[in-house]
């Protein structure tokens, strides 16, 4: 017996050491309970507004993606038009994209070529939605390709988390946000309770139609937005936590090179991907909308003239 006890202890120690050595995020996140039914008001809509794109491959977007699997990386904004206020998620490319792109990481400048079609603000104006009518631009995060279009929204509040404002004010990865100025940035918190596996949330309109949750990882203050429209559709805007939908649907992390290039916290990003994957299991039909997946964007409602 005295000989067995040390060996059991050694086994237990070895097991606990192995558990420590393994990335803590290897275990899949548990499927959370479904949230209360949302009550989006009649007339609320979601519209996708592409402002341009760049080309890359699935191999750059997620582990297991093919090098011959060419992907269009769209850049733009999602308009959520709620009777209590119009919210624009991200700002897409602005008119001065060529200059703005010079703030991107050098490797990115050498490998991709973003092409501007039409800035979001111009498309909004053409559709009868003046920029001045927006309640806020809500940034999923403050990277260059999400803030470039802010040059056209000088009077609009820009909602960010405290962690993202700190990132925008100080980080290397947010040079353009600083160049354009963070004077309009307004910090919000997550005053509401757990939502789909996330400990905290903000139900912006108190009707379950637009619920923000923190997804730190890609940047320290990244967020995801669950959007539920009156036609029964359910969306989650995941920003750049995943570049293409497979990041969440498989789930799969970005490849090592992409992680090093763009994720402030690679393991943290993977934890959020697993949590979003679990959330998708709890909401049948949930449409996962990465900020750059053109295939998903092509299925979203386009902006209609008012
Ligand atoms: Zn990003």
Describe what is shown at a glance.
The protein is α/β, with parallel strands linked by helices and 306 residues long. The protein has helices spanning 4-21, 58-61, 97-100, 106-111, 120-126, 144-147, 162-170, 175-180, 246-249, 256-262, 266-282, 294-297; strands at 45-57, 70-82, 85-89, 115-116, 134-138, 158-161, 185-188, 202-203, 210-214, 223-228, 234-239, 287-290.
Question: What can you tell me about this protein's structure?
Answer:
The chain is 29% helix and 23% strand. The protein is of the alpha/beta class and 306 residues long. The chain has one domain: 4-Layer Sandwich (Metallo-beta-lactamase, Chain A). The longest helix is centred in the first third of the chain and has 18 residues, at 4-21. Mean pLDDT is 92; it is low at 1-24. The structure holds zinc ion. Zinc ion is lined by residues 141, 143, 218, 240, 262.
Estimate percent helicity.
25-40%
How many separate domains make up the residues?
Answer: 1
Q: Which blocks of ≥5 consecutive residues have pLDDT under 50?
A: 1-24
Looking at this structure, what is the CATH superfamily?
Answer: Ribonuclease Z/Hydroxyacylglutathione hydrolase-like
Beta strand %: 15-25%
């Amino acid at each position: 017996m005295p000989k067995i006890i040390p060996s059991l202890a050694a086994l237990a120690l070895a097991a606990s050491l192995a558990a420590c050595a393994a990335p803590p995020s290897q275990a899949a996140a548990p499927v959370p309970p479904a949230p209360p039914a949302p009550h989006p008001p009649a007339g609320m809509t979601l519209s996708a507004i592409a402002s341009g794109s760049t080309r890359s491959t699935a191999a750059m977007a997620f582990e297991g993606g093919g090098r011959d699997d060419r992907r269009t990386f769209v850049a733009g904004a999602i308009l959520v038009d709620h009777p209590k206020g119009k919210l624009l998620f991200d700002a897409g490319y602005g008119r001065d994209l060529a200059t703005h792109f010079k703030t991107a990481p050098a490797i990115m400048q050498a490998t991709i070529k973003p092409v501007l079609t039409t800035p979001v603000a111009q498309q909004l104006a053409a559709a009868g939605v003046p920029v001045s009518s927006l309640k806020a631009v809500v940034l999923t995060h403050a990277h260059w390709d999400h803030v470039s279009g802010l040059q056209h929204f000088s009077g609009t509040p820009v909602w960010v988390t405290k962690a993202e404002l700190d990132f925008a004010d100080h980080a290397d990865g947010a040079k353009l946000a600083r160049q354009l100025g963070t004077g309009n940035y307004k910090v919000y918190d997550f005053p509401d309770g757990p939502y789909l596996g996330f400990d905290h949330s903000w139900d912006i309109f108190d009707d379950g139609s637009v619920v923000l949750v923190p997804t730190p990882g890609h940047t320290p203050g990244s967020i995801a937005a669950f959007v539920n429209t009156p036609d029964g559709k359910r969306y989650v805007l995941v920003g750049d936590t995943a570049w293409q939908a497979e990041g969440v649907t498989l789930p799969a992390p970005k490849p090592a090179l992409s992680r090093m290039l763009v994720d402030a916290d690679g393991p943290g990003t993977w934890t959020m991907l697993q949590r979003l994957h679990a959330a998708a299991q709890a909401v049948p039909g949930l449409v996962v909308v990465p900020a750059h997946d053109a295939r998903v964007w092509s299925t979203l409602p386009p902006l209609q003239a008012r």
